[in-house]
Write a structure and sequence with these properties.
Blueprint: E1 12-16, E2 21-24, E3 28-32, E4 37-40, E5 45-48, E6 60-66, E7 69-77, E8 85-91, E9 102-109, H1 123-132, E10 135-136, E11 160-163
Parallel strand pairs: 3-10, 5-11, 7-8
Antiparallel strand pairs: 1-2, 1-6, 3-4, 4-9, 6-7, 8-9
Length: 164
Amino acid sequence: MQPVLEDSPPRFAILDEESRPILTAEQIVGYEWTTHSITLRPGAALNVRVKKGRSIVHGVPFSVVANGVICYRGVITGSFSSVTQSVPVINISPIPRGKKDVVQIELGYPRKYFKGKDPRGDERIRRALRSLGKLRGVNDGQMHTDEPLDCAADGSRAVGLAVS
């Protein structure tokens, strides 16, 4: 059984190792199920806190939570890292750089180092995202894959990184 968060559990969130939000459902426009790519609202940013004595190069732990239950864990890292990861990864500086308003949960870093079963397809996560209206790329009779995404007035979207 996975740990359950007690105080007003989020329906969907990515949390750090102290259960503080890195990314919340309110910051998300859509979650593309087939690629596990997350489109962020304008001005939204991953709130990554790096503990003293640690480095993002070695990976900052995160947990993906659905309805207060930790569904799986991974790390946040960057393409500048030479440290391999065998768990799900959010790469904050992918090369080549994709869309600046999209983050992706990938398998391992580099991918060939991933070990085990892909946890990203957890049905609890899918149900939580569907209930929030964030799920994209799934045609199960309840979703439409051509829903428009929110943009700023000038058509731009932005993502940033806060490191403390």
